[in-house]
């Protein structure tokens, strides 16, 4: 391989190649991947465009560019994704944490701070934990919580457990279970708060989903039936009896789903207590209480 490939030349080649595949930010992708390959930040790339890239590094980088041309997520190549200021392990088959989900975490933390409880630790159930980003962040931000986290996918539970071990001190209290919603829990299990970022995209909207999500992230964590509302019906029906008096159910939702979910919840015995909007003003986190 020609060792005259400089940082500047390589970025020019990669940017042009990625532009052919309708990626949202080809230049940024090219820079991010080269930063990873060189273990340098992007500022270094800009300051050293004439530096020569070694053959082994160049081969690795080109293989990553080929992957990215298929819309393969950079997070899977890197193996981590930042969430709430912490790096979480992610791998193929695991939903990549999104900034929108930080709103769900912050909403739950606010409720925990304002909850009038006995001396007993607050108990939280995280349904569909995925990478564990919600459960682990809640525990990291409020170490006294007792958290149970479930996911139907054993790979998700394995990944979430690894993230908890990496990020949290050994005394933190999270229990992980492979389970369809909360089916593995005892009938007597009760929680102060139940949180979930469930799959909420409908198959009817699949063509509008970013190709990196549609093609590479786990479909069971993204899609929920034809309309995207199907999983919510189950959550409303199966969790009402799990809440302690004064408890709340917090759900991340898709854009435009608020009214339909409020009606669905009311039919199942819930009342909409609050909605929290993202930076674009779109309701993303709904808080429900038993009616």
Description:
The chain has 291 residues and is of the alpha/beta class. Helix content is 41%, strand content 20%. The protein contains 12 helices and 9 strands. A hairpin with a 2-residue loop joins strand 1 (80-83) and strand 2 (86-89). It is elongated, with a radius of gyration of 21 Å.
Provide the fold topology:
Elements: H1 7-19, H2 26-38, H3 42-47, H4 55-69, H5 74-78, E1 80-83, E2 86-89, H6 100-114, E3 123-127, H7 133-141, E4 146-151, H8 154-167, E5 173-178, E6 191-196, H9 211-216, H10 219-222, H11 230-239, E7 243-252, H12 258-267, E8 270-277, E9 283-290
Parallel strand pairs: 3-4, 3-6, 4-5, 6-7
Antiparallel strand pairs: 1-2, 7-9, 8-9
Helix pairs in contact: 1-2, 1-4, 2-4, 6-7
The proportion of residues forming helix, as a percent range, comes to 40-55%
Strand order of the largest sheet: 5-4-3-6-7-9-8
Helical run tally: 12
Structural class determined from secondary elements: alpha/beta
Order of helices and strands: HHHHHEEHEHEHEEHHHEHEE
- Main sheet makeup: 7 strands, mixed
The value of Rg in angstroms is: 21 Å
Oligomer: single chain
Average residue-wise pLDDT: 94
Taking pLDDT < 50 over at least 5 consecutive residues as the criterion, the unreliable ranges are none
In whole angstroms, the N-to-C terminal distance is 68 Å
Strand content: 15-25%
Shape: elongated
Number of extended strands: 9
């Amino acid at each position: 391989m020609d060792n005259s490939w400089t940082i500047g030349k390589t970025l020019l080649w990669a940017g042009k190649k990625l532009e052919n595949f309708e990626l949202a930010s080809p230049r940024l992708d090219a820079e991010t991947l080269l930063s990873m390959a060189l273990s340098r930040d992007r500022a270094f790339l800009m300051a050293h465009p004439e530096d020569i890239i070694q053959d082994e590094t160049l081969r690795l980088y080109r293989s990553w560019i080929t992957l990215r041309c298929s819309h393969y997520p950079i997070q899977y190549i890197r193996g981590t994704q930042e969430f709430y200021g912490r790096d979480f392990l992610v791998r193929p088959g695991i939903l990549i944490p999104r900034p929108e989900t930080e709103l769900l975490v912050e909403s739950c933390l606010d409720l925990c701070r304002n909850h009038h409880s006995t001396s007993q630790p607050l108990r939280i159930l995280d349904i569909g934990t995925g990478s564990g980003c919600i459960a682990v962040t809640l525990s990291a931000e409020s170490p006294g919580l007792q958290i149970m986290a479930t996911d139907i996918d054993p790979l998700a539970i394995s990944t979430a457990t690894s993230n908890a071990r990496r990020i949290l001190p050994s005394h933190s209290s999270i229990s992980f279970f492979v389970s369809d919603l909360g089916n593995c829990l005892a009938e007597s299990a009760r929680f102060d708060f139940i949180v979930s970022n469930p799959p909420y995209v409908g198959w009817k909207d699949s063509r509008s989903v970013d190709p990196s999500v549609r093609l590479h992230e786990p479909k069971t964590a993204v899609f929920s039936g034809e309309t995207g509302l199907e999983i919510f019906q189950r959550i409303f029906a199966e969790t009402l009896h799990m809440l302690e008096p004064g408890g709340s159910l917090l759900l991340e939702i898709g854009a435009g789903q608020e009214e339909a979910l409020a009606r669905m919840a009311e039919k199942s015995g819930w009342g909409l207590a609050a909605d929290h909007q993202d930076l674009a003003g779109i309701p993303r986190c709904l808080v429900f209480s038993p009616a």
